[in-house]
Amino acid sequence: MKITVTRKVFLIIATLIAFMSGAFFTLAHNDLEGMFRTYASEARHRTAVQWADVISYFYQTENHSWVNVTDSLTKMMSQNRAQHDLPQQLIVLDGQNHIIVQAGVQTGMRDRSMYTTVPIMEGDRQIGTLLIYGEGLDPLYEIEETVIHTMTLATMWGIIIASALALLSGALMARRMTRPLKFILKAIKQITRGELDTQIPVTSTDEFGQVARAFNEMTRQLAATEEARKHLVADVAHELRIPLTIMQGQLELIQQGVRGPKPEDLLPIHDEVIRLSRLVQDLHQLSQAEVGKLQLRKQPTDIVHFLQRLLENFEVEAMDKKIKLELQTIDEQLPMLKVDPDRLTQVFVNLLGNALRYTPDEGTVRVEVTRSGDFVEVALSDTGPGIDPNHVPFIFNRFYRGDEDRSRGTGGTGLGLAIAKEFVEAHQGKIEVTSELGMGTTFVVSLPIN
Ligand code: ATP
Ligand code: MG
């Protein structure tokens, strides 16, 4: 038999019921018996005191002599024979424990502990001790028997019915409680079969509900990752096809003798090889960053100085397009940042490259450095065409390029922003974009201080 959670819960409830019933039963039984015992012993004592009074009365009426007391007692007891609660033996002892009076159907002296013992008093003076045995409490014991018997039966039935109900509801509850587990198990099997986007119903807010929610989130991620992987392969294949086709075409022309293998004829092929190498290098870096294997060679860097030097490299390009390229910093002395200058160079070269590429002649590209809490923010704004709001969510995806760049074959591979994002995030920073069509685009790179 499989030990399922349902069965375990059921077993726990059953054990609990058995334990509780046992405890209840024993306690109730003992209590009741104790109650009867006390009641009986009190009753015994009361009867004994009454008899002691009677004996004291006889003693006094006989002129303080014990001589006729036994006779009076015997007479009295035989007159009351009809009553069931007569004691079987009455014994009076004097101060030296000598038997001086004896009455009743039983004779002889038995163990003292079996007698109820009370003093016989005359006023405040003790004149003897009464030992009384078998003082006819039979009806009381009979009642006790009946009550205990009835109670036992009632408790037993109560326990049986309550247990049955508890077990039934326990079993139902256990089933209900573990039902989400069955869903999860089924879903895991589906995932094993490759149905990655399997979702399970979230029916509660308890731990099972949380597991279900986490599970759904996980499968969503899995499906997205799988989707991305498929896209990546397709994208890479696509990116490789164009340069390869061009190279093939050029090589065929050379082979057919249409073109001689002069250095300038090899130029288009060389261009494509460069493009391919860059693609492979970009892909390599991206994949490394994505699996978190990127080695950062961090060193204290003065970010303003760093940006100044970087901008110098773009001055010629900016001048060609008559673009105003400016760097603005706040007066406050910025702390040194621990960053990898090579990686950051790649990030900003791409951002500046994009900005200069998209900004029309006589536009402006501005770089602003500010401090915001624990971060230094570098904002790159251009006066380019802006990015379509529908495209904004995707521009950090690899191979993503605007429609025009794609169709015209201008621009790069579409990996630049994806790499920038990974590199910035490897520095525990973040990169954000705001853009307005016709107005321009601003990329903000936030880098943590320390
Ligand atoms: P790579 O950087 O790999 O050479 P790329 O520049 O085309 O190629 P990204 O830098 O990732 O690729 O940019 C992705 C796309 O985002 C670009 O093709 C372009 O459509 C859009 N884009 C990026 N920066 C700007 C900008 N400053 N203004 C307008 N569009 C932009
Ligand atoms: Mg780019």
Give your account of this protein's structure.
With 450 residues, the protein is an alpha+beta fold. Helices cover 56% and strands 16% of the residues. It is built from ten helices and eleven strands. It has a five-stranded mixed beta sheet. The chain starts with a helix and ends with a strand. The model has no long low-confidence stretch (mean pLDDT 87). Bound molecules: adenosine-5'-triphosphate (ATP) and magnesium ion. The site of adenosine-5'-triphosphate has 21 residues, from helix 8 and helix 10. This is Signal transduction histidine-protein kinase/phosphatase MprB. Its cofactor is Mg(2+); Mn(2+). It comes from Alicyclobacillus dauci.
Please estimate the helix content: 55-70%
Strand order of the largest sheet: 6-8-9-11-10
Small molecules bound in the structure, each named once: adenosine-5'-triphosphate, magnesium ion
- Estimate the mean pLDDT confidence: 87
**Sheet of most strands:** 5 strands, mixed
Radius of gyration: 52 Å
Shape: rod-shaped
Oligomer: single chain
Task: Tell how many strands the DSSP assignment holds.
Answer: 11
Percent of sequence in beta strands = 15-25%
**Structural class given helices, strands, pairing?**
alpha+beta
End-to-end separation? 60 Å
Task: List the secondary-structure elements in sequence, H or E.
Answer: HHEEEEHHHEHHEEHEEHHEE
Report the total helices.
10
Low-confidence residue ranges: none
EC number: 2.7.13.3
Membrane topology: Multi-pass membrane protein
Catalytic activity: ATP + protein L-histidine = ADP + protein N-phospho-L-histidine
Main location: membrane
